[in-house]
Amino acid sequence: MKLITQEWLDRASEDLETIEQLHQQAHLTNVAAFHAQQSVKKTLKAVIEE
Questions:
Q1: pLDDT band for position 25 (50/70/90)?
Q2: What residue numbers bound the domain in which 41 lies?
Q3: Per residue, what are the HEC states of the chain?
Q4: Which among 12, 14, 10 is positioned nearest to 41, based on CA atoms?
Q5: How many domains does the chain fold into?
Q6: How many CA atoms does the CB half-sphere of 15 hold within 13 Å?
Q7: How many CB atoms sit inside 10 A of residue 7's CB?
Q8: CA atoms of 48 and 50, how far apart (whole Å)
Q9: Per-residue pLDDT at 39
Q10: Phi and psi torsions of 23, nearest 5°
């Protein structure tokens, strides 16, 4: 795996960890949704790089 691919996947994983911390807080649903979108975007960038 290319280094840049792993870096994108690491950043995507960080977004998922953030979602895990936020999902219990109803008033932060919009923030969790943003991080979900960012995680998908970063994962797709990793696929493109590879």
A1: very high
A2: 3-49
A3: CCHHHHHHHHHHHHHHHHHHHHCCCHHHHHHHHHHHHHHHHHHHHHHHHC
A4: 12
A5: 1
A6: 19
A7: 14
A8: 6
A9: 98
A10: -65, -20
Per residue in 31-43, pLDDT (tens digit) is 999 999 999 999 9
Q: Which amino acid is at 37?
A: Q
Q: Please state, as a whole number, how many other Cβ atoms lie within 10 Å of the Cβ of residue 29.
A: 11
**Cα(33)–Cα(11) distance, rounded to whole angstroms?**
16
User: What length is written for the chain?
Assistant: 50
Burial class of residue 25 in the structure, from the number of CB atoms within 10 Å of its CB (0-12 exposed, 13-18 middle, 19+ buried):
exposed
Read off the tokens for 44. Answer: 């797709």
What is this structure's pTM? Answer: 0.89
